[in-house]
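step: validate -> pass
step: tokenize input -> pass
step: predict -> running
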Amino acid sequence: MAEETPSEGKPVMREVTPLREALFDRLPDADGPCPYDECTGDGWVVDDATRTATPCRCRPQRLAAQRTKALTREIPERYRHISFESPEVEELATRAPAQVRAVRRYCEAVESQLDAGNGLGFHGDPGTGKTMLAYLISRAAMNAGKTVAVYSFPRLLAAIRDTYQDDFGDGYGAFLDRLIEVDLLQLDDLGAERPSDWASEQIFLLIDGRYEAKRSVVYTTNLPLPGGDSETASREESLSDRIGARVASRLSEISPPLPLFGTDQRTSLAPDLL
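step: predict -> pass
step: emit ->
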């Protein structure tokens, strides 16, 4: 649908919407208030004296939000408080200082990293901080006004299947295009289940599309690093076994893997009820 430009014949008079608190904790909705308090929420700055309208600074963000409105892009409640100063991240930095430093460097240059199509992959045992680090990157991208989509691997496959049954939405092709176009795609539990031939083809189309378009992917997986020397690396299946060599090869190029193996910290944080 074409966008309407404010009329040049008459000034547009509207009440300015108050600035939303913590607006950039996630990408603003296409119809949300202006984060710069310069327009009335439509992406246009109207000059009553000259009766002209110019694009607001928030307009690119609104257009990006419109393009990705059908995608899951909010940070779950459990991870919304996470920052590099959070006790969980500070504790992780004592166990995996190199990994946390790598994520911090990525976040400090998140715009240039995303523009270059760079991502990261986190391999390790459950409860070692992989998802927490991934959400630090997604939050940094959102705070920079970038578009972000967040899916677990099983949920992504379910969402793709649902597009075949959606008689009123844009359908499979449009959904896949949005997933390819978004600035950052976060995939959790990649390879959590052995995909069918159909699912393998979907994940290839997605990752190959993002690879060709130089779009960033951040992923987490419980599967070992290829050729790693940890105990986990001795498992029979690797990420390549689960999602296919073509996908794993592309991911290894655009999302260099970082190891995070060790004790499940979720169990150690459980309250002592005995």
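step: describe -> The CA atoms of residues 97 and 139 lie 20 Å apart.
step: cleanup -> pass
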